[in-house]
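Backbone-to-sequence.
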């Protein structure tokens, strides 16, 4: 390190700063993407729960008998 000039150290510092800026930008972008992923997973979870409930009701004899009873 002692054999490096001030100019070389400045260049390394600029390189380090640009890498840090790139990392901070990448992390910010990933955080935004993760918010979208969390929202999508939340929606998908409730769509699956809803589909299972509808399928359960459709396969339920009690519900079908009640619907048929109302139709008579």
């Amino acid at each position: 390190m002692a054999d490096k000039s001030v100019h070389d150290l400045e260049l390394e510092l600029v390189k380090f700063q640009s890498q840090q800026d790139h990392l901070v930008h990448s992390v910010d972008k990933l955080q935004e993407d993760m918010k979208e992923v969390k929202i999508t997973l939340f929606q998908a979870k409730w769509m699956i729960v809803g589909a299972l409930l509808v399928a359960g009701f459709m396969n339920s004899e009690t519900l079908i008998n009640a619907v048929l009873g109302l139709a008579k």
